[in-house]
Amino acid sequence: MRFGFFDDLHLEYVITRPDTPLPWINYLGTESYFGIISNTAGGYSFYKDARLRRLIRFRYNNAPLDGNGRYVYLRDDDAAQPDFWSPTWQPTRTPLDAYTCRHGLGYTRIASQRKGITCETTYFVPLGQDLEVWDVHLTNQRGTAANLSLFSAVEFCLWDAFDDANNFQRNYSIGEVEVVDGVIYHKSEYRERRDHFAYFACSEPLAGYDTQREDFLGPYRGWDAPAAVEEGKARQSLALGWQPMGSHHVRLHLEPGESKRVIFVLGYHENPENDKFDPAGTQTINKKTVLPVIRRFLQPDVVSQALADIQQYWRNLLQGMQVDTPNEHANRMINIWNVYQLMVTFNFSRSSSYFESGVGRGMGFRDSAQDLLGFVQLDAQRARQRILDLAATQMASGGAYHQYQPLTKRGNHDVGSNFNDDPLWLVLAVTAYLKESGDWSILQEQVPFDLEHGSEDSLLAHMERSLNYTQERLGPHGLPLIGRADWNDCLNLNCFSDKPGQSFQTTTNREGKVAESVFIGGLFVLAAAEMEAVYDRLGLTAKAAELAAQRVNMRAVLNTAGWDGSWFRRAYDHFGNPLGSQECTEGQIFVEPQGMCVMAGVGLEDGRAESALNAVREHLGTPHGVVVLWPAFKQYYLHIGEISSYPPGYKENGSVFCHTNPWIQIAEARLGRGERALDYYLRINPSAREEISEVHRCEPYAYAQMIAGKEAVKPGEAKNSWLTGTAAWSYVAVTQWILGIRPTFDGLKIAPVVPEDWTAFDVQRTFRGVRYFIHVERVGAGNAVRLEVEGAPVEGDVVGIPSGGQTEVRVRAYLGTA
Predict the structure, then answer these.
(1) Where is the Glycosyl hydrolase 94 supersandwich domain (predicted)?
(2) Is 389 a catalytic residue?
(3) Which of 83, 439, 489, 536 is catalytic?
(4) What digits encode the pLDDT tens for the residues 658-701?
């Protein structure tokens, strides 16, 4: 069952009914000011940091689920009885005669009609601006004139979203709003900080306004039936304490066929530096710098151009890689939606969505590093800065804060470190950046440790400490210590209890043994191989040789202590017992070590890799993707940790944890099995799952974190959409390993591993300022490649970077043995 359709020409997903299984959301903004908006205008906005600079209040786990947002109301002032509705359906949920929501790249347009009045509202964040625009177009399709009232409504958050949600004894008294010349200024906390405020403006003369929520809504009323809207009269309320909000009331007269455009602007502003803490300053907001911005974006021509600029920005960005393959779902995701999600995950890591509050966690170290694997292709300069930001949260030991706040860029002390896989991801992020950009100067950038302790060293030294961190923490089997957890945050194997009812996080048990991770072992082999290539490039042969010896030793350990006979084990708990073994009643096989070890090349030479992937297909494969483990844990086990706290088939306990699926796709490609690689890719491809939207429930244009597994009550049901490492890894898997267009230090590698029935496909790829036009044609069975560049045959499978200012290169690749 579908709830809409893809409009590939306009780069939009069109939702045709408002009651989607879950709120289907979009993201606004790409730089500093961001918003999340649903198909019924729910959501919230913030400046840089979803916790510390939240503009719009949002209630998670609300009923209905999509509570609070960017609301407009229409009222028919000529009706005998009060008649009002939401043209976005929420929050009044009044039946509409027509409805569409077009989620585009960086904007959302919601259109509806009721009783002859059409309303189309476009929401977006202009490039380079710290504001959002609500561009409302009204048309009277009736045969008679219409007198309407238009109300806007937004509820302000008191900036720190965590404090806003719990410190009510104070927050019910600090709300402060000022209204000057029709502009609503939210300045709660301004008395003590004097540095930032929000504003809400309207392009039309006002019939009234409200800034106090309870005055606007009325006693015991909700957003579905505001008293001010029902009565058609604003209260002119001024919030001093209680619940600050912003609402404009505009009266409109429309002749038959007449249209009217009303623009609302909600924004964030900081006073100039010398105005922020002037002891003699007044409490009046400095409007000299903000009024020109407000006036500019209340002009229709400016708004139209700003939207056109966003659309062009995204068309330009998408041109970085365009493909034409035999599969429409691969084309759609590669060319449009996967790239779009790469930007979203880069901006937010795992912090801000409808399923992440932006309060409990900031930017993840491991998460952001993996997001860079795909994002480096979109914007190398922003990727460069993110790498340096991540490295600055590393400690002198080589460990790293698991998360940091985007506004301060400081590590999150509440979460801390000791996730022992974190440091190694920095190596993979940096080498991906080097291959894409060719910017070797980044390795010499001086980067502090932990931002707070004063010491610093080159980025290259940070990478070295990442690898040393693993080598200095090996367990009794020679495998890396898992610490608090590895990639699977819920696999907490260093828990034990001395007394009933008590549990502890520790690094050793009473016998001096420690929990070990096979997964980190595979990750080390992968990262070490990448680092060796960097050393070789820099002429550091001794360091390369030393690291190579460590890598070879780790491979040997993985092939012994890490091997269970038919697949790779997952870990050893603090008692020295294996997980992911045929010895286990539950959790016999895990997906992570199979994917990571084979990606790292472990087992390719002796059949272990093939055996492990065959076991994945037999035990973990489902029509909805590859589950993370099998069988699921049926009860909670203290010594295994949080993973066993979930019901079977959900999250880390046996769901299709989508993030790991591309690892299997890459692993299958490494074995040359193109049919299997593409099959796994399509099982979790959102576009391919659009036909079962009533089962999948999440958006058909964005990857979700998880899909309920085969042991779940509702297999195939997705949860936690948008913010997932699946976006980056899926993009890497399909473009670099299945299509096989892979950046290297010296050029583009052309090594497709596609199904035998793919006769041809085309790729356009911009790489280091050069546009490559690549045509791949199958001439026989297998994956052998023969290349022609500008009509001339070349040795090997790497197309070098042209010299002499050449900006276009044409490549023909002949696939298979004729």
Answers:
(1) 12-295
(2) no
(3) 489
(4) 999 999 999 999 999 999 999 999 999 999 999 999 999 999 99
